[in-house]
Amino acid sequence: MKMTHTRIPLTILSLTSACGLALAIHAGSKSVATVASKATGGSSSWHWQNPLPQGNNLRGASFVDADTGTVVGEYGTIVRTTDGGNSWTVQVSGTTQALWAVSFTDANNGTAVGEGGTIVRTTDGGDHWASQPSGTTLQFRGVSFADSNNGTAVGLGGTIVRTTDGGNSWAPQSSGTSNDLFGVSFIDTNTGTAVGGACGIGGESTILKTTNGGNTWVPQSNPGAVCLFKVSFTDANTGTAVGDGGLILRTTNGGNNWSIQTSGTTKTLYGVSFTDTNNGTIAGFELGGTGIILRTTDGGNNWVEQTNYSLPQGANAFYAVSFTDANTGTIVGDAGIILQTTNGGEQWNSQPTVTFNYLYGVSFTDPNTGTAVGYENPDGMILRTTDGGNTWLRQSSGIGDPFAGLNFFGVHFVNSNVGTIVGQDGIVLRTTDGGNNWTQQTSDTTDWLYGVHFTDENNGTVVGFLNGTILRTTDGGQSWVPQVSGTTSGLFGVYFTDVNTGTVVGGVTGESVILRTTDGGENWVPQNSGANNQLRGVWFADANTGTVVGDQGTILRTTDGGQTWASQVSGVSEILLGVSFTDANNGTAVGQLGTIIRTTDGGQTWTREESGTNQDLYNVSFAETNTGTAVGAFGTILRTTAGGPTPTPTPTATPTATPTPSGTPSGTPTATPTATATPRATPRPRPTPHPRPTPR
Questions:
Q1: Element (H, E) at 320
Q2: Which of 346, 313, 316 is nearest to 329 (CA)?
């Protein structure tokens, strides 16, 4: 079974593949940037290896000169450069709320705003960020400071707050509208414009103007009929606003009149930056499609699309743009995208990133040597490191599907040279030279294979989701023999402690499946887990001692080979997708929304660790007690070399499932749009898939 757009979430089973994600090969990109990582909400033992400088979605940007700029985004992300993007520092924001906008008036003084009424402020270039009380829990989407003291933030429900003392105090202002406000631009302490609207069918464009610092906001008539997201004024008279459906509005008389300009697109235009009356750049996206960059040098009489950049499919939604002069600018977007130009957009260079593709499986045989697998069009994603992830190199699978690409879901190496990959349509690949060469093996199934585990070079087992498939080999995969499992439920994980003794796990919504064999799979015996949730990952320290993880934070533990399973308190409600132990006591589980939990006492206690991201994590591999790697959405690779859990606040977003789209075969995973704790006034540019069942 092939699926044209393979983004596979979890409604019933939920596997997530990236729709049209591709390898990031950045033509004309800069030399590799250096990254100084600090935890977003506090200290963290996990750091980014890919993307760089980090992989959280970016929503706002503010540059004060060609060298000095700050970008902000989800999970409280703040990233700073002082050398034009050659190096970046991930700063401590003190929050895990999504930050939607940022405004700096000089190199030191800046303010970022976001969800939950969050406002954070720095006076030392971001070395320290302090939370400020906003007086509201509504989401802020725009902020503009005219100087270090005077600033305005706008948000949902027509929210406007104002400070005249650098944010020591914020006072609400009456906007006169209940429409959402997304952007604001002040050209001095008194004169500013806010934009927004009522989004969706029958929507409208809202433009508000003040000439007295917001004591009064006056609505301005305009020809728009959709949401406006951002606005940029260069003087009291000249401004441009952008919005849904390719809408561009322009005024040259302070907003007394707004006229529509021809954008040449119907994509959502989300960011705009003008440096003078003539030179401006717009950035945007198309839901499920590609990003867009538009440029004008004549005040918008003509807008020209710029396409001279290289980014992978599925990670090309642009949200914010900041230019400091006609030539020098930065665009940011999903998955930590940072594009920069020094020639007015004739060439856009991107930060160094191995891939933005979804990564589903990872296997390390020692602290330095590991392989990660995922989606790639056309030939599947295989990444290899021999230096602990400091560098990841792409390997070729030798097969391909040029129409839809390939998903690899599981990988397991028994030593540094010998490994097996499994994936969609019964794909099984084998290497005996560390991945320099991969050979496709005959599985005689079209099931989607998620889990794979070998006890030695010859003896291995794979499991599949669609039909509850179990395949077994005793000759290194030269032949794969189907085994009778007694179930048709989806199977996601497999682990063998010796050639005879193994456990597979899975299930469907509301049902857990655990099967056990002690005779090499000749017979599989169902075990009573006592759980009612899908089980996603399994790991055993020996024939008796094992751990299983799954939906709603489920963790089960056995010390008698599965005759009895005891539920453990995970302390999380997110779906757990992968688990890895180095011995009976020390283990780590990962999952939805960047969840990482750790135990050092065999699961009697689990402690949440600060991952620094809300990207879904699909799998984890520890080669020794303190050294591990987690992989996930949009090419996320996180690494730790430190032991001991670091508690972290629980992310605020709570995902929800959506119905299967019509026309999708029964039992087929389907794409799911984003869900967040606070309803968004505009669609996100990409679906955030519910975490798929993670392979081992």
A1: strand 318-323
A2: 346
Strand order in the sheet with 248-251: 228-233, 239-243, 248-251, 259-261
DSSP per residue, 589-657: EEEGGG-EEEESSTTSS-EE---S--S-EEEEEEEETTEEEEEEGGG-EEEE---S----PPPS-----
Q: What does each C-alpha distance from 639 to 79, 352, 375, 389, 553 come to in angstroms?
A: 19, 17, 20, 8, 22
pTM above 0.85, yes or no: yes
Do 252 and 298 form a contact (C-beta atoms < 8 A)?
no
What's the rounded Cα separation, in Å, for the pair 298 and 289?
28
427 contacts 440 by C-beta, under 8 angstroms: yes
Query: Token pair of 107, please?
Result: 């190199």
Token pair of 300 as six digits: 């918008």
Measured in whole angstroms, the distance separating CA 466 from the mean position of its chain's CA atoms is: 26
Number of neighbours of residue 238 by Cβ within 10 angstroms: 19
Print the SS3 string covering 527-580: CCCCCCCCEEEEEECCCCCEEEEEHHHCEEEECCCCCCCEEECCCCCCCEEEEE
For the cut 90, the answer to whether the pLDDT of residue 101 exceeds it is yes
Mean pLDDT calculated for residue range 623-639: 97
| Cα 690 to Cα 696: distance, rounded to the nearest angstrom | 18
Cα–Cα distance, 511 to 531 (Å, whole number): 7
Pick the range with the lowest mean pLDDT from 182-191, 352-361, 556-565, 588-597. Answer: 352-361
**In a 3-state reduction of DSSP, which class is residue 177?**
coil
DSSP single-letter state for residue 117 = G
Q: Could you give the CA distance from residue 56 to residue 333 in angstroms, rounded to a whole number?
A: 9
**Residue 163 near residue 151, CB atoms below 8 Å:** yes
Structure tokens at 583: 């011995």
d(CA 309, CA 306): 8
Q: Which helix (H) or strand (E) holds 100?
A: strand 99-104
Any residues with CB less than 8 A from the CB of 184 and at least 6 apart, and which? Answer: 142, 143, 144, 152, 153, 154, 192, 193, 194, 195, 231
Nearest to 658 by CA among 641, 643, 675: 675
Q: For residue 289, which phi and psi values (nearest 5 degrees)?
A: -120, -140
Examine residue 172 and say whether the peptide bond preceding it is cis (omega within 30 degrees of 0).
no
Q: Which amino acid, 62? A: S
Asked if residue 637 lies in contact with residue 65, where contact means CB atoms within 8 angstroms, the answer is no
Q: CA 298, CA 305: separation in Å to the nearest integer?
A: 14
pLDDT band at 238 (very low <50, low <70, confident <90, very high): very high
Residues forming a β-bridge with 102: 112
